[in-house]
């Protein structure tokens, strides 16, 4: 995902959610500055999912009933607190994607085990970045942003932890994506989370078209999805 392709979609997200692009950029710069101050080399980006069936594990209520989907996959990329739940169920995690909003201690712990963790900066988590990133093993931190990338902070596409995990797996060559633990119609979430889930749905619809793949997660839903992206 190059930023020129991502940017028009990003601008639509900002407008719809009422977020400030400048705040995202400031968080990105705080992140880059924090990494420079720590003086360590971040993860080299050598994830290789070529030919793999990759489970993109969401943190929804259904995850408990769909653990076998993750177990049968060749690799697992977990979104936020799904990582903690998978590990508690003895399901391996090959990469965690998080903005440190859910289970940040899991992110720190996984980096000490040399598991790559894509830690994401956005407009309102710069303080969390400054608190938790210095506690991580930097060689396992893959820094990301939803704004324009600025080395070493990268942008693979995506907005929520879950759909960012899917875009990341796509970038690193996954041949098939499956989605345990996703509950796009979760009635327990509030209005903001519900709106984020609608964006996750749109972004995954865009990703499946880019991949020429049909995600089981979207079966029966496509007619109601507002198409985005080229």
UniProtKB/TrEMBL annotation:
Domain 6-hydroxymethylpterin diphosphokinase MptE-like: 49-185
EC class (word): transferase
Cofactor: Mg(2+)
Catalysed conversion reaction: 6-hydroxymethyl-7,8-dihydropterin + ATP = (7,8-dihydropterin-6-yl)methyl diphosphate + AMP + H(+)
EC numbers for this chain: 2.7.6.3
This protein's UniProt keywords: ATP-binding, Folate biosynthesis, Kinase, Magnesium, Nucleotide-binding, Transferase
GO terms of biological process kind: folic acid biosynthetic process; tetrahydrofolate biosynthetic process
GO MF: 2-amino-4-hydroxy-6-hydroxymethyldihydropteridine diphosphokinase activity; ATP binding; kinase activity; magnesium ion binding
Keyword set includes Magnesium: yes
Function recorded in the entry: Catalyzes the transfer of diphosphate from ATP to 6-hydroxymethyl-7,8-dihydropterin (6-HMD), leading to 6-hydroxymethyl-7,8-dihydropterin diphosphate (6-HMDP).
Protein name: 6-hydroxymethyl-7,8-dihydropterin pyrophosphokinase
């Amino acid at each position: 995902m190059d930023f020129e392709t991502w940017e028009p979609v990003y601008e639509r997200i900002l407008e719809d959610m009422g977020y400030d692009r400048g705040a995202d950029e400031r968080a990105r710069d705080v992140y880059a500055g924090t990494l420079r101050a720590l003086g360590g080399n971040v993860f080299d980006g050598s994830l290789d999912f070529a030919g793999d069936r990759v489970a993109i594990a969401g943190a929804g209520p259904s995850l408990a009933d769909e653990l076998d989907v993750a177990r049968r996959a060749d690799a697992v990329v977990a979104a936020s607190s799904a990582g903690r739940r998978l590990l508690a169920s003895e399901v391996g995690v090959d990469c965690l994607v998080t903005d440190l909003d859910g289970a940040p201690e899991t992110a720190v712990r996984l980096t000490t085990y040399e598991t790559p963790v894509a830690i994401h900066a956005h407009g309102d988590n710069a303080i969390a970045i400054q608190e938790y990133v210095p506690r991580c093993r930097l060689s396992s931190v893959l820094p990301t942003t939803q704004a324009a990338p600025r080395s070493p902070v990268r942008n693979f596409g995506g907005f929520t932890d879950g759909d960012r995990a899917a875009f990341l797996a796509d970038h690193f060559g996954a041949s098939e994506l499956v989605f345990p633990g996703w509950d796009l119609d979760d009635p327990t979430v509030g209005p903001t989370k519900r709106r984020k889930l609608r964006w996750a749905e749109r972004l995954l619809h865009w990703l499946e078209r880019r991949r020429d793949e049909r995600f089981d997660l979207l079966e029966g839903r496509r007619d109601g999805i507002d198409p985005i992206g080229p």
